[in-house]
Amino acid sequence: MNMIYLEKLEFYKITEMLNSFCCTYVGKELASQLLPCYEVDTVSYLLQETRRGS
Q: What secondary structure does DSSP assign to 34-51, as a single string?
């Protein structure tokens, strides 16, 4: 994963914003460890999971 792209997209600002909504230390840890996924199959699977949950 190219960190330059993450910096240009300000991905770390997004995870910081997400951290502000977390109520527990464990939630903040998990949110700060998130990384984008680039594999098409994985993204498709996760989107299907999201659709099923709504």
A: ------HHHHHHHHHHHH
